[in-house]
Specification:
36% of the residues lie in helices and 23% in strands. It is of the alpha/beta class and 277 residues long. Helix 2 runs parallel beside helix 10. It is globular.
Length: 277
Amino acid sequence: METLKTHAVHGGTLRYLRHDSRTTGTPMTLSVFVPPGEGPFPVLIWLSGLTCTEDNFTTKAGAYRAATEHGLIIVAPDTSPRGEGVADDDAYDLGQGAGFYVDATQAPWASHFRMERYVVEELIGLVDGEFPTTKARAISGHSMGGHGALTLALRHPHLFRSVSAFAPIASPTRCAWGEKAFTAYLGEDRAAWAEHDAARLIESGVGGGCYDDILIDQGDADPFLAEQLKPELLTAAAGAAGQRVTQRMQPGYDHSYFFMASFIADHVAFHAARLKD
């Protein structure tokens, strides 16, 4: 991986990196924070939301003081492949910046949009190979990235010890964002969509028993709450399946990084407690 920038922060080191991805067939960028000390350290992977790059979380979430306190590496990849020759759309909720953490099967997206495989295979392997990790890891994210964190954790429970999310798209098969993206990336077969829907995965027992709790924070002033996020569907699925979910409705908070910055330390501590050997 090529180092683009390096910053000292809260005693640790933050690097912006780029590498040529064999999975997406494009250059991919990410940030990696390593706390002070020799390590090895457990890893928290953060997945960002629509329109974001690796920079949004890195500069706005304020996670690194807590990461230093708990001794966690934090990895924040870009949200999609990008560049010349990569399919795109004029809308913000499809194409570059909107990978939805699935492997597309439909043209023109299938050539590069393989974000599930990128995260669970290539990214994890790169980080473990380049940084002093214990190979114990957790995953979290926001909005589209919250959807990604939940579905990747449920679909690949052997890779993650814990999972949390901020304002996740709880059931993308039942909201406009998800219906649009899944039609484009996965085609018209809704059975294929359900394999990437956190509420439906929990309801069907996928990943069941692998996580003692799933922490979710949601702001009640979020403008996308009722139409796109639908946390009640996740709560109902968890209740039916017997999966514990701690879903905290935070009064007055919206969908922005101000919300995440207010509660990110809780999520870092949640994961740190589950990543200890």
